[in-house]
Amino acid sequence: MLGSRQHELAVRCEPILDRFESKMPRLFAFLRAINAGPGRVVRMNVLRKAFESLGFVRVATFLGSGNVVFETRAKDIGALERKIERALQQALGYRVPVFIRTHAELKEIALLEPFEDSETRGADLNIILLANNLDWRSKAKLLALKTETDGFRVRGREIYWWRWKKPGTSLFATVPLAKVLRVPFTIRGTKTIRKLVVKWP
Fold first, then answer.
1. From 3.30.830.10, 3.40.50.720, 3.30.70.1280, 3.30.1300.10, which CATH number describes the 2-103 domain?
2. Helices within the chain (DSSP H only)
3. pLDDT in tens, 28-82
């Protein structure tokens, strides 16, 4: 009887636990320079295992450019980024800057239209993700890079960047982002961000 009673209690608790776990916040981690050249090739199952080793649940990767979706009860985003960076350093043997956005933040990024349609129609649209807001000096230097082929809009920890190919060519102009920003960053296409929001609504 006791064993039957314990089994009954366990069955009753399972839906409650499932509902509790399902309420954990979903986060999106964007990793810099994954599969971006020789020596930086990473299989997605390696990334998933690194995240799961930290106790995160429902870990999934999207495309092969270092986009990881996971759930955790931890709330300190900065601490999470540093924790993941340490785990990736150990798993891959080199440093990988990590940039986390909440579900609400990513939806807001996906929905934002920071430019006039006439200005960007047909252009390549990208989002530069930062760990912190730009200081005013770096922001001024970045905005000074605007040309007929490149334009920027800074909003919080994101930089929206439209690009046109150089006239008469199939190439984009070289923009010295690393020199101007002077902080780690990673870049994703607007289409990738919007696909993530659609897949994980």
1. 3.30.70.1280
2. 2-22, 44-52, 77-92, 103-111, 117-120, 136-143, 177-181, 190-199
3. 999 998 988 777 889 999 999 999 999 999 999 999 999 999 999 999 999 999 9
